[in-house]
Amino acid sequence: AANEKYKALCAERESSDKYVDRHAQTINLQLKDKQVLAAPPPTRDVGCSAETWSIYDAYAAENAGATGDDPLDAVTAATKGSSSSSKDAGRLFKQVEEIVTVALSSPGCLLEVGEGTVKPPPAQPRHGLVKKGAAKGGAEEAK
């Protein structure tokens, strides 16, 4: 008798979630082999320390150079043709070359061998002189 009442109640409330059994959709992703997954990019541990006084000294030196307090330093830097940005570019180029070499030698490399060659940055002309063209045949000042 109790089972019949329960079946009648279930028949009356078929649209309610509490009385109707429904299937749940579950997504099972395909398992991938280790060879299919890409290897993580190589990383390098780097550490530094910065004290308050060294930061202050760096800002003070930068501001002194920007205002032109010592014109002799600016002249010697211009005649040497070297700057910190070119040194940084050289270091960056070396690091990129090392990382590409490691990536190409790893078994899970996704780079093509033709793409693995890194060209060095072009040398910048000194003192602002740039050749405009072979037809004109002269060096003109770049602006």
TrEMBL record:
This is Uncharacterized protein. It comes from the Eukaryota. Residues 115-143 are annotated as: Disordered. It comes from Florenciella parvula.
